[in-house]
Amino acid sequence: MIQRRSRKSQAGVMLIEALVAILIFSVGVIAVMGMQAVSIEQVSAAKYRTDASYLANQITGQMWTDMTHLGTYAVAGSAGRAAWDATVASTLPSGTATITVVGSLVTVTVNWQAPNESVVRKYVSVVNINAS
Predict the structure, then answer these.
(1) How much is the average pLDDT of 99-107?
(2) Are 74 and 87 in contact (CB under 8 A)?
(3) Is-above-0.85 flag for pTM?
(4) E-assigned strands of 70-120?
(5) What is the spatial distance between Cα 113 and Cα 53, in angstroms, rounded to a whole number?
(6) CA 99/CA 89 separation, integer angstroms
(7) Could you give the CA distance from residue 52 to residue 123 in angstroms, rounded to a whole number?
């Protein structure tokens, strides 16, 4: 003789299944939100690195065309560099830059600090500017 389970013994099983499904779905949604936050942070960091690279290339290009005044670019606020310094400050958060010129070897260092970060990031470009 086969015994049938009563409906009473099955009561609440569907509710437990629904709660487990909601729990699994919620964990998945929270994971996607976390990945989105990390993605936004990484995109911002990549943008700052790209901007710093562009700014360093911009000033070295200007220095190539103005080789007679190459030494003056090492001084912040000099005639050839004042507008570029202002662009660095306005493009990057807490953006600053230094340029060192030793003979024909030019080192451009662009520094910035992203919001809510304690680390100061930097991009360094070393270029040999030769007349020949």
Answers:
(1) 93
(2) no
(3) no
(4) 96-102, 105-112
(5) 15
(6) 15
(7) 6
